[in-house]
Amino acid sequence: MEGVGSNKAIYTTDVPEDRVELVEMIASLEKPVVMFIGDVDSGKTTSLTFVANELVNLGYRVGIVDSDLGQKGILPPATVSLGIAEENFPSLSEIEPYLHYFIGITTPSQYIGETVVGVKRLVDVARSLADVVLIDTTGFVTGPGFELKRLKIEAVRPDLAVFIESTGERERAIEELIEVSSSLTETVLLRRSDKVKSHSQEERRAIREAKWRAYFSSSSPVIVDLSTLRVSGTSMFSGRPLTGEEKELFERLHDWVVLAGWKGKESYTVVKADSGRRPYNRSVIKAIDFETLSNLLIGFIDELGFCLGLGILKWPRLSEGLLEVLTPLSEDELSRAVEVRFGRIRVTESGEELALLRREEL
Ligand SMILES: Nc1ncnc2c1ncn2[C@@H]1O[C@H](COP(=O)(O)OP(=O)(O)OP(=O)(O)O)[C@@H](O)[C@H]1O
């Protein structure tokens, strides 16, 4: 990608002096876990990249947990990822990914639980592999973003939380986060570099597009057989399939063409052909438009709950229990999957983001 470049943050030593002091501070701690927090485009990733490279220069093995879901450096998008740096690197995208946790969407507001669990689990692994663990986070610091940061700090209990100075209305959110964190962790407030550049929603989308494209560049189609895998992240495929009579009843009552359906413990889930109408989501019947499933992101999950990699659902063969999926995973990697988890973004292999879904839609 030209212009913005697919790596927004790169290694530069042209950073405010307080980052140099931060490196000294981290080096004085015993196997520390350090979380970077700041608002959008405040320079979190640039600061983390600087600190990581300087620690590598001091001979450290640096674990990096990338939970900046919307603007990840360590691929793939829509996951929390762990990478280990032992050599200098120009940007996070150059780091070989080691392990992932599936979130399934590029914005965490409805996935706070998953994001906190993902960060906590990857930090636990990183602690056992690295001399120091650095955590990158989203720039989402108000509303649900504030809660997310607070919960991440509570769950992970980092040795140090590094905040980046904010301006305007976000300033108060950062101050409050420092207040609520200070009994749980050491905190430090860094200056905002005068070199930081902000990026429009369009630029951010273009960066994500390049990342999706890179991740799916060498994908091939596979058939996923749901009789051998668990399904999660959706109420589809749980319970028993609808009987012919039940299907007919739904068709007559709602004027739908029902493609497939299941009766779970407390409710029905129905996939219908008709699109263009508002999603029908009542407490006992969840109706999903077939179109919603097209190009939906899914994750392949291993027996420990980590994400082996992603796929794009191209054609669900619902009544056969088969999914036609595009994925860069090898047969060997796929054979380690015990579960398929449904995400909430529709995206093509060329990186076009078609839609974000709400959690309750599937
Ligand atoms: N010290 C610096 N020198 C030059 N450019 C910088 C510096 N710090 C930040 N930038 C630029 O400012 C922009 C935002 O920085 P960065 O990507 O590190 O912020 P962030 O807070 O991680 O962003 P996000 O909101 O995506 O999480 C980037 O384009 C980055 O290259």
Task: Spell out the key features of this protein.
single chain; 362 residues; alpha/beta; Rossmann fold; seven-stranded mixed sheet; 8 helices; 19 strands; elongated; disordered N terminus; binds adenosine-5'-triphosphate
Structural write-up:
The chain has two domains: 17-215, Rossmann fold; 219-362, no CATH class. The protein is elongated, with a radius of gyration of 22 Å. Strand 6 (160-164), helix 5 and strand 7 form a beta-alpha-beta unit. It contains eight helices and 19 strands. The strands form three sheets. A seven-stranded mixed beta sheet has the order 4-3-2-5-1-6-7, with helices on both faces. Strands 8, 9, 15, 16, 17, 18 and 19 form a seven-stranded mixed beta sheet that branches. The protein has a five-stranded mixed beta sheet with strand order 10-11-12-14-13, covered by helices on one side. Mean pLDDT is 92; it is low at 1-5. It is an alpha/beta fold and 362 residues long. The protein has helices at 17-27, 44-57, 112-129, 144-156, 170-181, 201-216, 244-254, 331-334, and strands spanning 33-37, 62-66, 79-85, 97-102, 132-136, 160-164, 186-190, 220-225, 230-232, 240-241, 258-263, 268-272, 280-281, 285-289, 296-301, 307-317, 322-327, 339-347, 353-356. Bound molecules: adenosine-5'-triphosphate. The site of adenosine-5'-triphosphate has 20 residues, from helix 2. Its cofactor is a divalent metal cation. Pfam families: CLP1_P. This is polynucleotide 5'-hydroxyl-kinase. It catalyses: a 5'-end dephospho-2'-deoxyribonucleoside-DNA + ATP = a 5'-end 5'-phospho-2'-deoxyribonucleoside-DNA + ADP + H(+); a 5'-end dephospho-ribonucleoside-RNA + ATP = a 5'-end 5'-phospho-ribonucleoside-RNA + ADP + H(+).
